[in-house]
Specification:
Length: about 400
């Protein structure tokens, strides 16, 4: 067997199931706030496009994907990030993905030379796929703690030159899961300067780009930073985008990667062998989804409404940083995060996720300790009910 498989860590939800095992919750309706699975109604026009294109199931798709999907994705990037017309070449700069998870994993396999001692740098806490992808590619994960004192962003200046020299890929996640923190253009440009100086690739996981809480402040993107620095071919950078969160269709498995043609071309070769072409009916239903911004705004407004409702209930009783984007809360807990999670289930029938399950121990500690992740994915009334139960719990403890 591949010895790297043994290096993989248990998935957070497996650990959560063990933590809850044997506990008896009270007879209140259960509210799951642990998993980051969008639960808003998927838009009808996407479902119609899916059904209307089922006749394509008789044909094999190719890894490059349909031109119309690449055009729609490039058009959305240009609109969303103000890149200007024709800034993103759909022929050479975009590939469809079966959701970003698959693409994030596969990208690392195509970039890392596993015979060396390459590092894959990533935020800590993080989306666990970055780490698993690095380990299975034969690289070492390098954890960059995201702490409140640094605005929940990795402190790029704290990393030594030797570490950067060993780095093959830097993962940035903005808006961040689980912190809800956003990297501004200056931060992204600094990361880019380092990438040029030390010769590494930046993979920007931007799957929450359309879910932000201040309607007037859409988060910046990595391709925007490239453009601002005159890197019009997005050298050394790729970004990952998804319909899962933007359009509330996580089960559709549709996303794309875009950026440096010098990275996209070998990635296409990798994908051809890997056999992860996106089914044609999924691609064809994704075209109108990327072309339409209205449903994404409506979806975003539902999350804004939930934060507005939940905030005044929890903020007075918890140390609760206000997220800028995505759909998570990342409060500090007085008790250790596992006990708090257990008590939330045992006393209130709420499932939360201990922050330490999303992070790793480092020489400076585990940045998920004394934090829990709360997903605002349930309907508004359930989120409010959960917040009230949590407030009650905090007051009790
Ligand atoms: C930070 C982050 N990246 C990527 C993904 C994967 O999303 P998908 O594969 O549905 O596009 C998720 C899903 O929860 C996520 O939180």
């Amino acid at each position: 067997m591949n010895p790297y498989l043994e290096k993989l860590h248990r998935y957070p939800f497996e650990r959560l199931a063990l933590l809850k095992d044997g506990l008896q919750p009270p007879a209140k309706p259960h509210i799951a706030m642990s998993i980051g699975e969008p639960r808003h109604q998927p838009p009808a026009f996407i479902a119609e496009a899916l059904v209307g294109n089922l006749d394509t199931m008789g044909s094999y798709p190719v890894a490059l994907g349909l031109a119309e999907l690449r055009v729609a994705a490039a058009g959305w990037l240009e609109r969303r990030f103000g890149l200007g017309e024709n800034a993103v070449d759909p022929e050479t700069m975009v590939l469809p993905l079966n959701g970003t998870r698959e693409g994030l994993f596969a990208f690392v396999q195509s970039v890392v030379d596993g015979r060396g001692d390459s590092l894959v740098a990533m935020p800590n806490p993080f989306y666990q796929i970055y780490e698993g992808a690095a380990l299975l590619a034969g690289a070492q994960p390098f954890y960059l703690n995201t702490l409140e004192e640094n605005g929940f962003l990795p402190d790029l200046e704290a990393v030594g030159a030797d570490t950067w020299r060993q780095t093959a890929i830097l993962f940035l996640c903005s808006p961040g899961n689980p912190t809800g923190a956003v990297m501004d253009l200056a931060y992204l440009q600094r990361a880019l300067e380092l990438a040029v100086k030390y010769d590494f690739v930046i993979a920007g996981d931007e799957c929450y780009a359309d879910l932000y809480f201040d309607e007037d402040c859409p988060p910046a993107g990595l391709l925007q930073a490239c453009q601002a620095m005159g890197h019009d071919r997005f050298q050394r950078c790729v970004v990952f985008h998804s319909l899962s969160k933007r359009s509330s269709v996580p089960g559709m498995r549709s996303g794309f990667v875009a950026g440096d043609p010098g990275l996209i071309k070998p990635f296409l070769l990798y994908r051809t062998y890997h056999g992860c072409a996106v089914p044609l009916f999924i691609q064809l239903a994704s075209v109108p989804a990327w072309q339409d911004d209205r449903h994404a705004a409506e979806n975003r407004h539902l999350y804004q409404e939930k934060l507005t409702a939940v905030w005044p209930i929890l903020e007075p009783v918890m140390d609760l940083p206000r997220p800028q984007a995505a759909f998570y809360l990342w409060p500090r807990t007085e008790q250790d995060e596992e006990s708090f999670t257990r008590e939330a289930y045992r006393q209130q029938n709420l499932t939360l996720l201990p922050g330490s399950y999303l992070a790793r121990d480092t020489a400076d500690g585990n940045p998920g300790k004394h934090r829990v992740r709360i997903s605002l994915v349930a309907p508004l009334a359930e989120c409010v009910d959960a917040a009230e139960r949590l407030r009650h719990l905090v007051n009790q403890l």
